[in-house]
C-alpha cells in the first residue's frame, strides 16, 4: 500500500501472517488515558487487538486488512498522538517535564529539537527507522536505546564550550561525542541531521552515529522523584499486550497517577504522579494482570520476536519457547528466522528457527553461521546449561 490516500500521521501498514501491522510512534512517547482508551477500542474494533511495544518505544497494532487499517488510521490520526510519518523517530526521557532532577532547560530544548526532526521529511524504507534520543537525566534517564543520534545532558564541570566558559555548577549537553552548551544544542543536532539527510532521503540509513553506552535496567516498580510523588514502571513480557491491557493501563494511569501513559524502549510503561500509598495498590492490580512490577526479572534478559503463528517466516512459537527455557534463557535472543527482527545486534546466544527446530549462534546475530543446527527445545536447554569459554 502506498502513502497516497493513507493517513499522513501514521506509518504505512506492513504485512504479517495475521494481517497488516500499523505502527504508531507516540509524540514524546506519551498518550493520555482518554486517547489510549480510544486507541484500544479502535484496535479491537478494526484489528485483532494485539499490540507490541517496540524497542523504540513505538506501538505496533496487528491484524488489519487494507480497509480496517484505513479506519484505524483515521481514528488514531484524529487524536494527534503520533509523530509525523516519514521523519526520524524521537525518543525522550520518560519523565521529561515532571522530574525536578532533570535538566531544567530540557523541556524547551526537546520541543525545539522535535521541530527540527519533524522538518526532515520524506524518509522511507530502512531510513524511516533512523532515530534520535534525548536524555534529560533525572531519576529515569533514557540511557542507551540504540539511537543513531544520541543527545544527553551531562554535568561537565568547568570547561570551555565554544567561546564561553561554563562553570562547575552548570549542565552541558553531549551529542554523540560532541560537547556543547544548551544554547548551541539545537544547531549541533540540526547539523548532524543535515549530514545524514542525503543518505536518508535516498532510502538508506547512514552508519550509526550514536555512541554505544551501557544498557539501562528497565524502570520497574516505584521510583520517587519528589517528596510525595514518584513514577511507577510496569514491565510487559516481550513488550506484548492487547487492547484490554492497554485499556487497563489507561485506567491505572487515571486512577493512580497523572493520567498519562509513557511508553519506553525497555518494554515497560511508566506512570508518573503516583504516591507511595497508591503504588502498593497499583502493583497489586498490575501483577494480577501478568505485568512485571519489580526487578530484576530474567524475562528482560531474553529477546524474542513475535514468532509463529503471527509471522509467516517463523517456524516456531518463539515467545512460548523463550519462556519455556526459563532462567536458563538469560541473555538469549530467540528468532523465528534469520532476519533477527527482535534484536538485530549480536547476543551471547541466538536461537534461529528453521524447519521446526533451532540453529544456535554464539556471540553473533541471527544471520551468522550457527555452531549447532537442528536442535529441539530439550537440546537447546542442554546447550544453555553448558559453560562455554569466552
Detail the topology: elements first, then pairings:
Layout: E1 14-16, E2 19-24, E3 30-32, H1 33-46, E4 50-53, E5 59-64, H2 66-79, E6 89-92, H3 106-118, E7 131-135, E8 149-155, E9 159-161, E10 164-166, E11 171-175, E12 178-180, H4 182-201, E13 221-224, E14 230-235, E15 240-242, H5 243-256, E16 260-263, E17 268-274, H6 276-288, E18 303-304, H7 318-325, E19 332-335, E20 347-354, E21 357-364, E22 372-375, H8 377-385
Parallel strand pairs: 6-7, 7-8, 18-19, 19-20
Antiparallel strand pairs: 1-2, 2-5, 3-16, 4-5, 4-15, 8-11, 9-10, 11-12, 13-14, 14-17, 16-17, 20-21, 21-22
Helix pairs in contact: 1-2, 1-5, 3-4
Description:
It is built from 8 helices and 22 strands. With 390 residues, it is of the alpha+beta class. It folds into 4 domains: 66 residues, Alpha-Beta Plaits, CATH 3.30.70.3340; 113 residues, no CATH class; 77 residues, 2-Layer Sandwich (Alpha-Beta Plaits), CATH 3.30.70; 84 residues, Sulfite Reductase Hemoprotein, domain 1, CATH 3.30.413.10. It has a 5-stranded antiparallel β-sheet. A hairpin with a 2-residue loop joins strand 11 and strand 12. Helix 1 packs antiparallel against helix 2, helix 1 runs antiparallel to helix 5 and helix 3 packs parallel to helix 4. The protein is globular. The N terminus is likely disordered.
Amino acid at each position: 500500500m502506498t502513502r497516497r490516500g493513507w493517513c499522513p500521521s501514521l506509518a504505512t501498514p506492513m504485512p504479517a501472517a495475521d494481517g497488516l501491522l500499523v505502527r504508531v510512534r507516540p509524540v514524546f512517547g506519551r498518550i493520555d488515558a482518554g486517547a489510549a482508551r480510544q486507541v484500544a477500542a479502535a484496535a479491537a474494533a478494526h484489528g485483532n487487538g494485539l499490540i507490541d511495544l517496540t524497542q523504540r518505544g513505538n506501538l505496533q497494532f496487528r491484524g488489519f486488512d487494507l480497509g480496517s487499517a484505513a479506519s484505524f488510521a483515521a481514528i488514531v490520526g484524529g487524536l494527534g498522538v503520533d509523530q509525523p510519518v516519514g521523519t526520524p523517530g524521537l525518543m525522550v526521557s520518560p519523565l521529561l517535564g515532571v522530574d525536578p532532577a532533570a535538566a531544567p532547560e530540557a523541556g524547551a530544548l526537546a520541543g525545539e529539537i522535535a521541530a527540527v526532526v519533524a522538518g526532515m521529511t520524506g524518509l522511507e524504507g530502512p531510513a524511516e527507522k533512523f532515530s534520535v534520543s534525548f536524555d534529560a537525566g533525572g531519576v529515569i534517564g533514557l540511557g542507551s536505546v540504540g539511537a543513531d543520534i544520541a543527545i544527553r545532558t551531562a554535568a561537565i564541570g568547568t570547561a570551555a564550550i565554544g567561546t564561553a566558559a561554563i562553570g562547575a555548577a552548570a549542565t552541558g549537553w553531549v551529542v554523540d561525542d560532541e560537547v556543547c552548551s544548551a544554547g548551541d544544542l539545537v544547531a549541533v543536532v540540526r547539523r548532524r541531521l543535515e549530514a545524514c539527510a542525503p543518505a536518508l532521503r535516498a532510502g538508506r540509513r547512514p552508519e550509526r552515529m550514536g555512541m554505544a553506552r551501557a544498557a539501562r535496567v528497565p524502570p520497574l516498580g516505584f521510583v520517587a522523584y519528589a517528596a510525595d510523588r514518584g513514577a511507577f514502571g510496569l514491565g510487559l513480557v516481550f513488550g506484548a499486550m492487547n487492547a484490554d491491557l492497554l485499556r487497563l493501563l489507561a485506567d491505572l494511569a487515571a486512577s493512580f497517577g497523572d493520567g498519562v501513559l509513557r511508553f519506553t524502549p525497555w518494554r515497560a510503561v511508566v506512570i508518573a504522579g503516583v504516591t507511595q500509598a497508591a503504588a502498593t495498590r497499583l502493583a497489586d492490580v498490575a501483577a494480577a494482570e501478568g505485568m512485571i512490577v519489580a526487578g530484576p526479572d530474567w524475562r528482560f534478559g531474553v529477546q524474542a520476536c513475535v514468532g509463529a503463528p503471527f509471522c509467516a517466516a517463523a517456524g516456531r512459537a518463539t515467545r512460548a519457547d523463550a519462556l519455556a527455557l526459563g532462567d536458563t534463557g538469560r541473555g538469549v535472543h530467540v528468532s523465528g528466522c534469520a532476519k533477527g527482527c527482535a534484536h538485530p545486534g549480536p547476543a551471547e546466544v541466538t536461537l534461529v528457527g528453521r524447519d521446526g527446530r533451532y540453529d544456535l549462534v554464539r556471540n553473533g546475530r541471527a544471520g551468522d553461521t550457527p555452531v549447532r543446527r537442528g536442535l529441539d527445545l530439550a537440546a537447546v536447554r542442554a546447550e544453555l546449561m553448558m559453560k562455554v569459554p569466552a
